[in-house]
Design a protein that fits this description.
Blueprint: E1 9-14, H1 22-34, E2 40-45, H2 51-64, H3 69-87, H4 93-111, H5 118-126, H6 128-143, E3 149-150, H7 170-186, E4 192-196, E5 199-201, E6 207-209, H8 215-226, E7 230-235, E8 256-258, H9 259-267, H10 278-283, E9 288-292, E10 301-304, E11 314-328, H11 336-348, E12 353-358, E13 363-368, H12 371-381, E14 385-399, H13 403-409, E15 415-420, E16 424-429
Helix pairs in contact: 1-3, 2-3, 2-5, 3-4, 4-6, 7-8
Length: 430
């Protein structure tokens, strides 16, 4: 279906840190009140605060330690109830009742046996985070006069059955979004739609997720389908920074970068933007702004089709990595047939490779240490190959590096793997 164009329509995306408490929700309200009343908005919201992490703990308890379930779900409830109480509505019964309905659905899932498919159950359980946050915020906004309509992304973004990394069916999603969201935005009653990031659904209406930190991608999907004027990601940082301020207190803001550079940074793991976000925006030349949530009047950063004007070094640190080295047991060379088999096993276990390197007798990969997946991968590889691995390592990527920068970064570190290209160096360190 051909994407439609809605005049004066924008997409805003608010991350979990932006709405982690009542002050954050009020700040969101302030931002929405400041926009042009004739301007149509799709507002994509993540789960509040660390809710996704908490729901991942709920999932682990559901599988391995059901004695913890009650404590964890009680914490989940109280986190949301606290925000509602602190918002101090004259009558919060409607919000509370809607939240309790959702908690009842979660309790129903958790009271039954798990499916045995961890990824399927992950999407069933973790997707509740976005449903809770958007229900709370949408209900609050309506109560204080910011008219909006809530839309369920599980019924709008159609994916396949690749749980935790759902692949979007663009044609069906475009039809569903235009039929629901487009109709709301073109009507006279509500110019704001509140919906969820990160989640979608299958043809059978089973919930799926789009990959960790996938809310940015959700915003891009809605923007592409509806022909948005722009996408703004509201963050707790001044804009796109050249480094994580936790590692670099003197990190500087990138005022502007082109799509291509943003895609490179996202590919290597920059946390500000999800890797899949840029492609649909670039395809329709929709600019992406990254703006500070607490200072909405500031310019933030802009990503668009413009040219790179200066090459500021950018640093990306990925912790909790594992380096896996694979050797043929018969001391033979690593040949094409070996690589074909190794990649097949990696793909089957849905492992994302952050770096890879081969020599005559070995093939090594660096990837996120997702324990359940990594243990299974090593077990399968060990049937035919000798496998060695290092845990608790770090992957450092530097764009637009110099030798002086590299030497400074690796000081007092053991470098296990180093790879260089014209613009990028990657270092696996301990």
């Amino acid at each position: 279906m051909r994407p439609q164009k809605l005049e004066e329509m924008k997409v805003y995306k608010f991350g979990g840190a932006s709405v982690k408490n009542a002050d954050g929700v009020r700040n969101l309200e302030k931002i929405l009140r400041s926009h042009n009343p004739q301007e149509r908005l799709v507002v994509v919201i993540s789960a509040i605060g660390k809710t996704t992490n908490l729901l991942e703990q709920v999932l682990d308890a559901y599988y391995y330690d059901k004695f913890k379930l009650q404590e964890l779900t009680a914490t989940l409830r109280e986190n949301h109830y606290t925000i509602v109480r602190e918002l101090a509505l004259a009558d919060d019964s409607l919000v509370m009742n809607r939240l309790n309905e959702i908690f009842g659905l979660l309790d129903k899932v958790l009271s039954g046996p798990h499916s045995g498919n961890f990824d399927f159950d992950y999407d069933r359980i973790v997707s509740f985070g976005e449903i809770l946050s958007t229900t709370l915020i949408s209900s609050y906004l309506n109560a204080v006069g910011v008219r909006n309509e809530w839309a369920d992304a599980r019924l709008l973004i159609r994916t396949d059955h690749n749980y935790r990394e759902g692949k979007v069916d663009w044609e069906t999603s475009a039809r569903l979004i235009q039929e629901k969201v487009g109709k709301i935005l073109q009507g006279d009653e509500a110019h704001i739609v509140i919906t969820q990031g990160f989640i979608g659904g299958t043809e059978e209406m089973l919930p799926t997720t789009l990959g960790r930190e996938g809310s940015d991608y959700s915003a891009a999907i809605f923007a592409y389908v509806l022909g948005a004027e722009s996408v703004t990601i509201w963050k707790d940082v001044p804009g796109l920074l050249n480094a994580d301020p936790k590692f670099f207190p003197d990190a500087v803001k990138l005022e502007h970068i082109p799509y291509e550079e943003a895609i490179e940074l996202a590919y290597y793991g920059a946390s500000v933007i999800h890797p899949k976000t840029l492609k649909p925006l670039q395809n329709k030349q929709i600019p992406l702004y990254v703006k500070p949530f607490l200072h909405p009047e500031e310019s933030g950063s802009r990503i668009d089709a413009g040219k790179m004007t200066e090459h500021i070094p950018c640093y990306i640190f990925k912790t909790n990595q594992v380096l896996i080295s694979i050797y043929p047991k018969d001391f033979s060379f690593i040949a094409v047939e070996n690589l074909d088999e190794i990649f097949s096993i990696i793909s089957k276990n849905k492992i994302k490779i952050n770096l890879m390197q081969n020599s005559a007798l070995s093939f090594s990969i660096c990837c996120d240490n997702k324990v359940h997946k990594i243990e299974k991968l090593i077990t399968e590889l060990s049937v035919k190959y000798k496998v060695k691995y290092n845990l608790d390592i770090e992957l450092i990527t530097i764009r637009h590096y110099t030798d002086d920068i590299v030497n400074k970064v690796i000081k007092n570190k053991d470098v296990l793997v180093e790879q260089r290209s014209r613009a990028t160096v990657q270092l696996v360190t301990m």
